[in-house]
Amino acid sequence: MTAGKLRPVPAAAIAEWHETADVVIAGYGIAGVSAAIEAARSGAQVLILERTSGWGGAAALAGGFVYLGGGTPLQRALGFEDSAENMEKFLLAAVGPGADAAKIADYCRGSLEHYDWLVGNGVPFREALWDEPGWEPPHDEGLAYSGGENAAPFNAVASPAPRGHVPRMRDKRTGERGGGYMLMKPLAETAEALGVRVSYDVRLTRLIVDGERVVGVLARRYGREIAVRAELGVVLATGGFAYSEQMVADHAPRLIGRPGAAIEEHDGVGILAATAFGAATAHMDATEVAFFGDPQMMARGILVNGQGQRYVTEDTYPGRIGQATLFHQDNQAFLVIDEQAHEEALATETATPVFRVPPTWAAETVAELEADMGLPELALQTTVEVYNTYAAQGLDPLFGKKPEWLRPLTGAVAAFDLRGATAGFPLGGLRTDLDSRVLHVSGEPIPGLFAAGRCTAGICTGGYVSGASLGDGSFYGRRAGLAAAKGEVE
Amino acid sequence: MTAGKLRPVPAAAIAEWHETADVVIAGYGIAGVSAAIEAARSGAQVLILERTSGWGGAAALAGGFVYLGGGTPLQRALGFEDSAENMEKFLLAAVGPGADAAKIADYCRGSLEHYDWLVGNGVPFREALWDEPGWEPPHDEGLAYSGGENAAPFNAVASPAPRGHVPRMRDKRTGERGGGYMLMKPLAETAEALGVRVSYDVRLTRLIVDGERVVGVLARRYGREIAVRAELGVVLATGGFAYSEQMVADHAPRLIGRPGAAIEEHDGVGILAATAFGAATAHMDATEVAFFGDPQMMARGILVNGQGQRYVTEDTYPGRIGQATLFHQDNQAFLVIDEQAHEEALATETATPVFRVPPTWAAETVAELEADMGLPELALQTTVEVYNTYAAQGLDPLFGKKPEWLRPLTGAVAAFDLRGATAGFPLGGLRTDLDSRVLHVSGEPIPGLFAAGRCTAGICTGGYVSGASLGDGSFYGRRAGLAAAKGEVE
C-alpha cells in the first residue's frame, strides 16, 4: 500500500506538531511573499516554508515584468490612457477560449490598487518607456509593451497601452539586479519587518486534513518529516510543474524537452498535494512559449513556416510568436530578412544580444535563398511576392503588421533557421476563486486551502502576456493571504 | 459545508448497503459491457449500473469503427499486410507528443487477440473493403482506412494498412442499424447470458472508500440515494465530459459550443468522482474533431485557411483535417475545387450526403473567386499557382497529397465556406495503467478502482483515429473487468 505518498493525512494521525502558525505558506516566491504580507497585516501569525535556502523562487530570476494597467500612475506619467475595461477587453482577446472571465475582470479592476500596493511596499518603477520591439527593456525603463497590445489583431480590439511594469534594476546596495529580484527584495523585506517567520530547506510533502478542512502540512526538513499546523489556513505558493517530466508528458506535452523560465523546484508538488485531496485543476495544457528570435529583426522581416508561408504578425509580442510557432506550426520557423533591414536591426539596442547570431543562409535572390533553405521552388518566392506587393503600399492584409515595419524585401536576402527555437513553462494549475480559495472538483472551496502563483491557473489560460505570472502571483497571493487570515469556515 | 458533493464517503458511514456484487460497473456502453463479460467469465458476480434505461451509451450511436490491426483475419482476407510493430509506428506518429507509448504498444500487441474476442462474442465483420475518401463506408463494408494511414505524412512512416473494422450493419431481427449498435448488441447479449445483472436508471454520484481502497459507489435511483458494495472492485465506464460546460471550459475550451459525437450523459461524473479521491487525469485538452466537409471533394480540391494558404493534406482522414482546422487555423477553412473535380466527386458514393451542399461561391477564374471569398488579391491566386505547378507533375511537395488526387485546378472554380465547420468530443480523462487500474496522482494504483473508455485517457492523447474510442474502450474495458475480478489488494 503505497498510494499514500501524496495522500492527505488525517490530523488525528499526527502525534506531534513541530510548528504552528495561523497561516502557513508553502513557497517563498512572489505569491508566497504577497500572501505573507497581507496575512501578517491582517494580524495573523505567518510562517513561510521554503524548500531552498533563500527567498525568491522563480520570480527573483525573472525579467521582472508585472502586468498592470487601467491607468497606473506610471502609464499616465508616460502619456498613456488606459482603463480597467480596456485592459479587460485586451486580455479576454489575448488569452483565448476558456478565459476565466471573472478572474480577468477582477484582476483588471484591482490593478490600480495593486500598483499602489507594490509601490507602497517599496517596489520602484522608473518613469521611462521602452517602445521598441524586444523581449524586455534593454536598461531599466519601467514600462513597455509586453503582450502585443500595439500589434494586430489586438490593436483593433482595445486601445493599445503598455502594461509591462518593470521594477527599477539599480539599487545602491546590490548594484544592478534583474527586475524580478528587485520586485522580490522589497517585498521580502516588508514581510520580514512585519514579523513573518520563514523556515528554509523545508519541503511540502502532503496536506494534513480534518474531515473536509485543511489544517496543516507535512513537510521534510533535512530529511526528517515535520508536521506544521495552520490554525487558519494553508497557502500553496509552490510554483508550476515545468520540471515534473510525468506532468509535462501528461498535460503539456508540447513542452517535453523544452522547459524554460522556470526553476527546478517547479516540480508540481503543490498541485499534486492538493489534487490528492480532490482539488480541481484547469488549463493544465496551457503554456507560455519563449522564442529565440531577435524581435527587432523579426519586425523588419517575415517569419515563414515549414511550407514557406507567413503565419504570424512579425511585430507582435515575441511570446505570441513562440506560441504560434510551437502550437500551430509544428515548431518550424524561418526568419527571412533583407540586407538593409538586417543592418537596421543590428543598429538597435537589445536586451537579448544572444539572439543576434549570424543568419543561417544568405543569397542574392529569394529564389536562391528558397533553394538553400530546402523549400520547394515557388513556396517562398510567392510568399515574398504577396508580402512585397502590399508592403510597397504600406499594407499587410494577411496579418496586419503595422506600416512602420512594412517595406518590400529587396536585394540580398538572408534567413535564420529558427526551427525548434522555443521553450516554455506551463500555465495551468489548481482552480481557484477570486479569494484564492482552492476549489474542489465539485466546484466548492476546500476549507482552509488557498493557492496563488503558477501552481494555479491564473489569468492566462491559453495565450500569454509577459508580466502575467508576477502579476497574478502577487495579486492573488495577496488575496490568499487575506482570505487565509480571516480563517472563516464555510 | 458542501464540498462533500462528490467527495468519497467512508464505508463506515454507510448504514445500509442496497446492492452488492463482486464487481460493480458504472456505465453500460462499450467499456462497461466489455468489463462485464470478462469479469463474469472470471467467475465474478457482476452488477452494471446504467443511468439511462437501456444499454448502449455513446457506442450504440457511433458509426462503429473499431481500430484493430496487426494482421487481423479481416485485413489478411482483404489482402493487407500489417503487424503490431507497423501499427504501433503509425499510432505513435499519429497521436503526437505525449503519447502513452506503453499503452499503444500494449494495444497493438493485443489487437489480434482482441479481434478474435469480438468475433467470438458475436460481432460480425463483413469481408469487404471501402477504399475511397469518406468518414465511413457508405454500406456495410467491414474495413476502411480511418486515420490517414495511407496519406502523408504517415504513409512514409509506416506501411499503410486500413484498420477501421466496422461491424456488419444488417441483422435479420433489427433490419439495418449503425455499426456501433451492431457492436454493442452481441456484447450485451453475451454479458446477460453470462448472468451479468443490470440496474437501469441508476446514476453514479460518489465513491465509497475504506481507507485508500474503493469498496463501492453511491448512486441515485429514482431520486433516492443507494449504496452499492463492490466486494472486489469498481469499474468506471461512464464516458467523457463533452456535456460538462465547466469541464470543457477548464480543460478543452476549443470545444466550447461545439460538442459532437457524444451523448448528454457524458457529463464527466466518473472523472469527477475519482479525482475527488485523488485520481490523476491526463490529456484533458485532447479532443477528437469532426469536420463538415465532403471527403471526396476535399481530396480533389484544396483546403485553404483564412489567409488563402493550404494547410493540410486534403486526402487524409477528415478527422485530421478537423483537428488541423480547429486547433491550428482558428477554425477558418475554405474548400476550393474546380468544376470537373466537383462533378467527379458528386458521382461518388458517400456515407455523409449531408455535406454535399452547393458551393458557397462559384466563379470563372481564381482571381474572381478570391475576391468573392473576401480574400486579399493574390492570396489564393499564388496558392493555386504553386499547387497547379506541382500538380501538373503529379507532385505536392508542400503537403504530400497522393498523385491520384493531384490535377491542376482549371476552368470554372467554386469554394465552400467551411469556417466553424467543426465539432468534437474530449479524449482526456483518468490516468490508468495497462490493467486499467486508476492511478492516483502519486502514480500508484488506487486499490479497488478501475476505469476504461472515454472517462480515461486512452491510446489517443493528441491526434485521433476513428475507431480508437470503441477500440480502447473495449480493449481496456476487458482489462478492467479481468483486473477487478481478481480483486488483488496491493
UniProtKB/TrEMBL annotation, chains A, B:
Domain FAD-dependent oxidoreductase 2 FAD-binding residues, every copy: 22-467
SUPFAM superfamilies: FAD/NAD(P)-binding domain, Succinate dehydrogenase/fumarate reductase flavoprotein, catalytic domain
Cofactor: FAD
Pfam families given in the database record: FAD_binding_2
InterPro entries recorded: FAD-dep_OxRdtase_2_FAD-bd (IPR003953), FAD-oxidoreductase_2 (IPR050315), FAD/NAD-bd_sf (IPR036188), Succ_DH/fumarate_Rdtase_cat_sf (IPR027477)
The organism's place on the tree of life at top rank: Bacteria
Transmembrane segments: none
Flavoprotein recorded as keyword: yes
Residue span of region Disordered: 156-175
Coiled coil: none
Keywords: FAD, Flavoprotein, Oxidoreductase
Record's keyword annotation contains Membrane: no
Protein name listed in UniProt: FAD-dependent oxidoreductase
Lineage: Bacteria, Bacillati, Actinomycetota, Actinomycetes, Pseudonocardiales
